[in-house]
């Protein structure tokens, strides 16, 4: 309507003034409701052509869309294990902070495993003390074995001297020599036992204790899994859990956690594919939302998705017919408020209307730009004002359309 009124001022009005004052034709006589279609045919035709051209220019260089939503992601409240609910700490629609406990599962099995791991560590510590005591006893056994060995050696040397004077028998000397070998074996055995004890104290028992500590840590992790906590700050929704319920991570979620910042950071808009060459990161945009009527929110384009979702396929056992993908998709654009806090008060999930505006300031600042191109770019930037006016009219009429004409 604005485009038609603007173009009629430039075409139909001059044509009428020429007919009225140039040719002397008066309205109501020569110019009637039946003859004006012929008399003003040049102005009406030019008006229609100029209106179509202007609308095309406006909607191409300053695209608009009603497919704008404050998209947000919810977090499913699920435990990492299956169990029966023992305690519930929150109620539906309650605000929670990050890390706050939501509910606890029955943990008798995990507590038993944790206690077994603690007992195993205590058992290894006791074995370590026993090994140190045995090591001290091994030192005494070594001294005892070494003394017996030295006694056997001295007796053998003495009897070997007496063998020359036939004071002792050769068999007695050989028996003493065999005893020396036996005593040496006893010394070696005690030394080997000491090395075994040292290895057990220095390596085996610490390794066993480390394994027991790892088992204790794992048991503690499994016990901690029975406490389900909020990963982020937000509100708990659809939460009807009661003690005694069975919660399954695959089939029975406990509820939904909506993050506090969900849907309050940016808007996601779907623009037509024909505007893919116009929409760029950094463009200025405006939006108005049903959840916050009579308000124009200045935005900026922070991202343009370089693929269109309508063309995606997923490998299956059947071939995909291209006709199933013929429905044109939209170009996903991410909008963020130009100033912080401007999305406050807009409920996440609200439907909005958004305009994006082409800005040719940098191109116009070029000293080498031609005259015709300069005029053209000025015209492109100027017609953005019409689209801005349309958006403000939509912001005023949106509550009326929603409350009155929609029948809600």
State the share of residues found in helices, binned by percent. 40-55%
List the uncertain runs: none
**Coarse shape:** elongated
Could you tell me the mean pLDDT?
81
- Give the amount of beta strand, in percent: 15-25%
| DSSP summary, beta strand count | 14
Order of helices and strands: HHHHEEEEEHHEEEEEEEEEHH
CATH-level-2 architecture of the largest domain: Beta Barrel
How many helix segments? Answer: 8
Instruction: Kindly identify the CATH topology of the largest domain.
Output: Elongation Factor Tu (Ef-tu), domain 3
Q: Give the domain tally.
A: 4
- Class of secondary structure makeup: alpha+beta
Give the biggest beta sheet: 6 strands, antiparallel, barrel
Question: What top-tier CATH class of the largest domain fits best?
Answer: Mainly Beta
Assign the CATH superfamily of the largest domain: Efflux pump adaptor protein, beta barrel domain
Strand order of the largest sheet: 1-10-13-12-11-14
What is the end-to-end distance? 27 Å
Question: Could you describe the 3D structure shown?
Answer:
With 408 residues, this protein is an alpha+beta fold. It contains 8 helices and 14 strands. The strands form 3 sheets. Strands 1-10-13-12-11-14 form a 6-stranded antiparallel barrel. A 4-stranded antiparallel β-sheet has the order 2-9-7-4, with no helix packed on it. A 4-stranded antiparallel β-sheet has the order 6-5-3-8, with no helix packed on it. A hairpin with a 2-residue loop joins strand 11 and strand 12 (292-304). Helix 1 (2-10) crosses helix 4, helix 4 crosses helix 8 and helix 5 (108-163) packs antiparallel against helix 6 (170-224).
């Amino acid at each position: 309507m604005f485009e038609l009124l603007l173009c009629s001022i430039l075409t139909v009005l001059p044509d009428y003034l020429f007919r009225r004052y140039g040719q002397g034709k008066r309205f109501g006589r020569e110019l009637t409701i039946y003859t004006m279609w012929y008399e003003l045919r040049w102005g009406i035709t030019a008006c229609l052509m100029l209106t179509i051209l202007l609308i095309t220019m406006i909607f191409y260089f300053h695209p608009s869309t009603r497919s704008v939503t404050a998209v947000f992601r919810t977090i499913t409240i699920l435990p990492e294990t299956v169990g029966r609910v023992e305690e519930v700490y929150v109620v539906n629609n309650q605000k929670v902070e990050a890390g706050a406990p939501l509910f606890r599962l029955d943990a008798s099995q995990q507590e038993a495993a944790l206690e077994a791991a603690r007992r195993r560590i205590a058992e290894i510590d006791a074995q370590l003390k026993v090994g140190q005591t045995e090591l001290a006893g091994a030192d005494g056994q070594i001294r005892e074995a070494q003394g017996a060995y030295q006694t056997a050696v001295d007796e053998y040397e003495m009897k070997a001297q007496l063998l020359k004077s036939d004071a002792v028998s050769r068999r007695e000397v050989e028996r003493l020599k065999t005893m020396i070998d036996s005593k040496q074996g006893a010394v070696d055995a005690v030394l080997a036992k000491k090395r075994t004890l040292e290895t057990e104290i220095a390596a085996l028992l610490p390794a066993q204790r480390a394994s027991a500590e790892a088992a204790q840590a794992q048991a503690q992790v499994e016990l901690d899994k029975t406490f389900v906590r909020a990963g982020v700050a937000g509100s708990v929704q659809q939460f009807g859990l009661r003690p005694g319920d069975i919660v399954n991570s695959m089939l029975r979620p406990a509820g939904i956690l909506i993050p506090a910042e969900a849907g309050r950071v940016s808007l996601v808009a779907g623009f037509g594919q024909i505007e893919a060459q116009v929409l760029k990161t950094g463009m200025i945009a405006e939006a108005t939302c049903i959840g916050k009527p009579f308000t124009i929110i200045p935005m900026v384009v922070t991202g343009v998705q370089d693929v269109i979702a309508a063309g995606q396929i997923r490998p299956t056992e059947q071939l995909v017919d291209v006709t199933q993908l013929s429905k044109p998709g939209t170009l996903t654009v991410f909008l963020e408020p130009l100033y912080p806090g401007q999305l406050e008060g807009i409920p996440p999930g609200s439907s909005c209307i958004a305009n994006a505006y082409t800005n040719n300031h940098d191109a116009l600042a070029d000293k080498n730009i031609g005259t015709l191109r300069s005029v053209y770019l000025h015209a492109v930037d100027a017609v953005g004002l019409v689209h801005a006016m349309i958006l403000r009219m939509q912001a005023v009429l949106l509550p009326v359309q929603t409350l009155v004409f929609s029948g809600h």
